[in-house]
Amino acid sequence: MIFNKHTARKTAEVLLQINAIKLSPKEPFTWASGWKSPIYCDNRIILSYPTIRNYVRETMAKQIEKQYGKPDVIAGVATGAIGIGMLVAEYLNVPFIYVRPEAKSHGRKNQIEGHIESGQNVVVVEDLISTGKSSLNAVKALKDANLNVKGMIAIFSYGFEIADNNFEKENIILNTLSNYQSLLDQALETNYISQKELETLSNWNANPSEWNAN
Description:
This protein has seven helices and ten strands. With about 210 residues, the chain is α/β, with parallel strands linked by helices. It has one domain: Rossmann fold, CATH 3.40.50. The strands form three sheets. It has a six-stranded mixed β-sheet, sandwiched between helices. The protein has a two-stranded antiparallel sheet with strand order 1-4. α1 packs across α6 and α2 packs across α3. The mean pLDDT is about 95.
């Protein structure tokens, strides 16, 4: 996983400010997977804040060009990354497509929505990386359509070891604006969390599927 330390802290700061990320070690959230978690991230909230969405759009676009070169196409992963992916594509002045979790069962039965041509270079935009499974599912669909996937960029990653392993296995370069450790550093420095809460949050991240708030 590639990231810039200054950008990671700045991004963590704004995500906490608008409650796109909430930390609640004492009253954990329940994820769709059933995991108990002291953190919840919903980066779609970014779209409601023009200044912050512009910051994310421009920072993502510049990191894409620096890391991968200007692509032929930007692909957003449905549904969370469609909005920000469109903004990044607009900033770079390149076409935009998005990838569904699976092909539709009706109509043209597309999994990839938008115009593509074989051999095009594409960078995938994600809003959030947990295990990386759904993100890499989108990568597979793009590769199956004969597109050249240069890499992926996401707003935030939980930094799970399983995600690192999954991306490495598929030989996909992941670039993120921010990540879990940068978030904790920022939250502690600004007194958003205490030292004791930091320990709880670190313990969860080390073994999220087995973590118990008690």
